User: Which sequence fits this backbone?
């Protein structure tokens, strides 16, 4: 069916001209509504659209420009009774690059005359009033117009169409034309496409994707894809009673940040971390090409050249005797029966009114009212999600379809179940050496995977504190701490160290001493309350230290030991933690002094064989030392004689040879020379004996191996 696309432009003279282009009418493609949404913890969401079509169908989806890469990477189409045709989408190419020929002249300030100049030689029809002229456009010229008489304004110009008709050339003022129609269908289509490109540029933030299906019968088709979405979050409420079972309520926080409302959408929340990334598939890639000048004949062508480490099941019936363990019924999540929260706040006000029986009764009544209202609130919430394993992931499938407007968020209950657990106090001196924390060992008996999130704890009908957990698998347990335990006095003594020699051995002239370093740390706890306390003491694991006492910790994580201490009501309990560390000390005997070796000889931990070897080593070292000392003494004597002779010769230079003192000096020098000669002979002997003794010592050390 034919229609007309018109472009009206205000001209300088104030008249309106209409350029009409023949076009083909197109029906607006249908779209698919969102039916399923699956949100992941990795920052993406899977959207599935579904709808019924009949025969051949063209459907259109619209996305923001930054979402296209995820669509191109993940789009999945399904047509059970037909064929999926190729998907088309708008290329990510600048409009200025896509406009060709006629479209290149279009711009926000272009006039109709400028547009028509691009159609020089084209056939067109120009209507002026009731008259119409057809022909080929020769040119668009400018003509000066004489202003009316009495008008002192400057001369004006107007655009004139020069048309070659069957009867000859005809000049038609453009401001008098009521309509200009291109008769060349190809040129008209090119101008129309250029205008459509400009129109798409008005909303450059969005891109359309066209889906096409072919078939005969009516059927439901589906389209699924991934899209960036906020990470869904979880929050929990944990209710602890003196008489009732622990109760856990979990909520999922979901945000609709898409550009459309969700109407009756089936929502699923998946806990897990699948790998997700963005790859720029939408950006066109162009291979750079060189500009090559025309080749001359004979010219060469261009060339190119190339949690716990051990699983401990705390199922029902496995708690140690005497430990107050709170347990709930296992099974699928569901609403607990209506129940109140019993317990007492204690009497008294702020010291202004005496704690009379009437005042205590009023306080207890208020507490029960608060507890009953809180119990009714939590027991009235029903989980709207069914959990199921999905490979390495866990899915919360919301039972009822939800409707959520765009830019809105919702809280959906996903967990409502009684759970197992144990009230404890947690003491970690590395965190606070003066206070323990009130805690709870939460065992995930819900059968669901609990995603990480904050937990608000209510105890005995009132707010008790906040905590937080990481992801918790079914049947796993995790410690929570939510308040300071004011009823538990804690103390930790400074570590006491004791050293014990284990062994002393000699290996190739090296003495290896093994020592065991014992470290004792004592913890003291005084329970001021009228109820027993289970205290978990947390101490860092040091790889070089081995745990000796207790023989095994109650629990062990990758970084900490946990020791369990039961503190009776109004009593005191102590815990001794003993660790030991084996150290080795290496002593090089060749460089050791005699005093050091003699100290090792006296050590009662060495064997008799090693003691005898060390005594023999002392003999060798003493002989070497004695020979060296004797040699040094002779060398010192020779040096002293040399210095004395130098003094005598200086004196002799001042005396006459017949002088009696001179004759005495000569005799003394003669005696000294004889002594020096004897000393040199003795030093040579001592050096030889010292070298022999040193070699014997070296050979002895090289072969000294004894335990």
Assistant:
């Amino acid at each position: 069916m034919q229609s007309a696309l018109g472009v009206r432009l205000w001209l300088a003279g104030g008249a309106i001209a209409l350029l009409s282009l023949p076009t083909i009418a197109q029906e607006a493609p249908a779209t698919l509504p969102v039916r399923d949404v699956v949100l992941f913890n990795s920052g993406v969401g899977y959207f599935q659209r579904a709808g019924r079509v009949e025969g051949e169908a063209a459907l259109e989806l619209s996305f923001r420009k930054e979402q296209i890469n995820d669509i191109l990477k993940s789009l999945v189409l399904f047509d059970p009774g037909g064929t999926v045709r190729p998907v088309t989408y708008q290329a990510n190419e600048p409009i200025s690059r896509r406009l060709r020929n006629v479209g290149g002249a279009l711009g926000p300030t272009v006039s109709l005359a400028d547009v028509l100049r691009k159609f020089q030689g084209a056939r067109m029809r120009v209507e002026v009033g009731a008259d119409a002229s057809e022909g080929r456009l020769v040119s668009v010229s400018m003509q000066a117009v004489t202003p009316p008489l009495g008008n002192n304004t400057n001369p004006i110009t107007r655009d004139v169409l020069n048309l070659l008709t069957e009867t000859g050339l005809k000049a038609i003022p453009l401001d008098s034309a009521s309509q200009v129609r291109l008769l060349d269908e190809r040129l008209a289509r090119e101008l129309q496409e250029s205008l459509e490109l400009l129109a798409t540029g008005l909303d450059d933030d969005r891109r359309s994707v066209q889906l096409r299906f072919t078939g005969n019968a009516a059927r439901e088709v589906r389209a699924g894809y991934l899209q960036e979405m906020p990470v869904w979050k979880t929050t929990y409420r944990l209710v602890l009673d003196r008489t009732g079972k622990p109760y856990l309520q979990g909520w999922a926080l979901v945000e609709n940040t898409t550009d459309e409302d969700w109407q009756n959408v089936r929502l699923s929340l998946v806990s897990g971390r699948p790998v997700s990334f963005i790859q720029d598939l939408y950006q066109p890639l162009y291979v750079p090409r060189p500009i090559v000048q025309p080749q001359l004949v004979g010219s060469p062508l261009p060339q190119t050249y190339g949690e716990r480490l051990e699983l401990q099941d705390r199922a029902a019936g496995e708690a140690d005797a005497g430990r107050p363990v709170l347990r709930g019924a296992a099974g699928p999540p569901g609403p607990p029966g209506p129940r109140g929260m019993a317990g007492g706040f204690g009497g008294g006000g702020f010291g202004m009114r005496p704690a009379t029986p009437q005042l205590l009764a009023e306080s207890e009544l208020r507490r029960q009212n608060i507890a009953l209202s809180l119990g009714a609130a939590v027991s009235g919430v029903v989980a709207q999600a069914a959990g199921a394993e999905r490979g390495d992931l866990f899915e919360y499938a919301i039972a009822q379809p939800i409707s959520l407007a765009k830019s809105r968020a919702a809280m959906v209950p996903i967990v409502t179940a009684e759970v197992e657990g144990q009230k404890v106090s947690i003491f970690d001196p590395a965190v606070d050496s003066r206070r323990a924390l009130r805690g709870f060992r939460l065992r995930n008996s819900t059968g669901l995977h609990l995603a990480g999130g904050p937990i608000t704890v209510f105890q005995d009908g009132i707010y008790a504190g906040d905590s937080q957990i990481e992801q918790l698998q079914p049947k796993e347990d995790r410690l929570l701490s939510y308040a300071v335990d004011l009823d538990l006095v804690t103390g930790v003594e400074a570590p006491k160290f004791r050293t014990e020699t284990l062994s002393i051995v000699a290996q190739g002239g090296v003495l290896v001493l093994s020592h065991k370093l014992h470290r004792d740390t004592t913890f003291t706890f005084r329970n001021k309350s009228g109820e027993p306390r289970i205290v978990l003491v947390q101490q860092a694991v040091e790889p070089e230290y081995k745990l000796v006492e207790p023989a095994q910790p109650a629990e062990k994580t990758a970084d900490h030991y946990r020791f369990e201490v039961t503190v009776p009501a109004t009593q005191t309990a102590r815990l001794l933690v003993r660790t030991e560390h084996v150290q080795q000390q290496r002593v090089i005997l060749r460089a050791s002094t005699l005093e050091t070796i003699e100290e090792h000889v006296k050590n009662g931990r060495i064997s008799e064989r090693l003691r005898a070897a060390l005594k023999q080593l002392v003999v060798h070292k003493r002989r070497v030392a004695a020979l060296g000392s004797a040699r040094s003494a002779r060398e010192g004597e020779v040096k002293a004689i040399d210095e004395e002779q130098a003094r005598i010769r200086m004196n002799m230079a001042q005396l006459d040879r017949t002088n009696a003192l001179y004759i005495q000096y000569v005799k003394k020098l003669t005696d000294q020379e004889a002594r020096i000669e004897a000393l040199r002979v003795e030093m040579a002997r001592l050096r030889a004996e010292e070298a022999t003794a040193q070699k014997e010592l070296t050979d002895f050390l090289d072969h000294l191996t004894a335990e």
Residues 2-32+52-221 form one domain. The chain is about 20% helix and 40% strand. Residues 608-652 form the longest helix (45 residues).
